[in-house]
Amino acid sequence: YLMVEQASSADEGKLQQTLWGNLLLSGVVTLGILVIANLTLGRYQRRIEQMAATDKLTGMISRQVFETTFEHLVAQARRQQQNVSVILFDIDLFKQVNDHFGHNVGDMVIRKVAQTMLATVRQSDVVCRWGGEEFLIVLPGCKLAAAQELAERIRRTMACEQDAVVGTITLALGVGAWQPGECSSTLLRRTDQALYRAKALGRNRVVVAPAAHRTVSVGSNARA
After folding, report:
1. pLDDT at position 66 over 90
2. What are the residue numbers of the active site?
3. Which has the least CB within 10 A, 28, 147, 170, 209?
């Protein structure tokens, strides 16, 4: 048997220390990269979720998120026999605004209407841009008369303001209240019919869709 004993030199000890130091540094760098990547991906994911949940132009919740919330509110009203009212409205002659002033001005008008509406409704109300120049408001715990009053206040506020570019901005609004046993789609359909009735009667007005399937018009004409 041949047994050899060799003591490590000082240079070998330095090399080992350098190796372990490099390994430790590599581990720290790798861990840091993983943490940064996770934070970056999480931030982008939250941004994508936010973009999907909100309307880019107005900052309101998107229609997809709204539909889920609306179904929940109607179901809650059915269980607890609470009042729920809906206001559906759009901007009068909005196509002419786009045609005469361009889509940038049209976007400005949409944002202005959205800001006015958000400043008028309660914090508990749910609002969304339903599509194009059309907006939808759900009023939990609100009776039909109070919803009609709110719609009229929104209409008057917009009609009294003078925009520097397009002048007067008017709205046609339909108002409906949930009835016991009614589903959300039926409530929206009745309210939508009230909105189209407001347009047919000359715009710049509020039309209520009562339970008796007849319409009552309030408000005044501004521009055809």
Report:
1. no
2. 133
3. 28
